[in-house]
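Need tokens for this chain, all 344 residues.
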Amino acid sequence: MRYHLLGRSGLRVSELALGTMTFGPEWGWGADEATSRAIFDAYAEAGGNFIDTANRYTEGTSERYVGDFIAADRDHFVVATKYTLWDEQGDPNKSGNHRKNMMRSVEASLQRLDTEFIDLLWVHAWDFTTRLDELMRGLDDLVRQGKVLYVGISDTPAWIVSQANMLADLRGWTPFTALQLRYSLIDRTPERDLLPMARTLDLAVTPWSVLGAGVLTGKYNRENPPEEGRAKGGAATVERNLEIAETVIALADELGASPSQVALRWAMQQPGVILPLVGARTEAQIEDNLGALDIELSDDHLERLDAVSAIDPGFPHDFLQQEPIRDVVFGGTYDQIVNHRPVG
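Here are the structure tokens for all 344 residues:
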């Protein structure tokens, strides 16, 4: 296991993060305490130190399990949890991004985790009702109180994240150091705006659903297509996703690896600091995921995966890449300019 700096911070986190949404049986498909402990131990023994949970995961059981598992060596682990999602249905102030829910939710998470501080607090999702100055000042207050060390944001449009960090920098508040989003070979849409923004603002990225809701594990094919959920989509999407999965499976066979390992490794080798979240319901699954640490995709492998999974960049990206547009923007000098700044 290698370690990366968490974005613009000096915090060292492992190159794979352990997602713990599967910790707890309350939702009907998670792991019991003994299995969750085995998953945690396998990850920690491989050198993993970056644990990701949330207030809502398995009705709080995930946080309680994590708190128990890290207790013997609390300072070794980087514990990330989230606020925003509801803790009580029907109460408008027990969900959302606003200060009241932020403070209430963090206190409850600290109790469930049985810790004095949270290493990384995520804003779980944008609610489109809370002003950015209220959000960023509230997060900064938590950092100044010592209850939170770093802050990140998940599932939020790029323009909001960018504006938030500009505001934090101008006001002397704590900026976001990390970004969480959905990203995989079957969903590369973050490459349009979110990932270029992350590289420009020096944000670490922890993608979820890197295995494409199971499509990239090899368990589906044309005779056994996905029936529901994110893996299905429209008919055209199913066909495209299965074609991508076939390429992943072929590369896995060439490398003597599993399809899951190839899909995870692809994400790890994308530009910027990409730290995939790995989740598991069994010890065998986490051991398989950790095998991604032991393989490397060649340029040829990456080109084949890119070819089968490429997306339309959309406007304005495709527009600005056209030669006639570059000509009128640069007056015919585009190829003479050495640009050291990130492009796209």
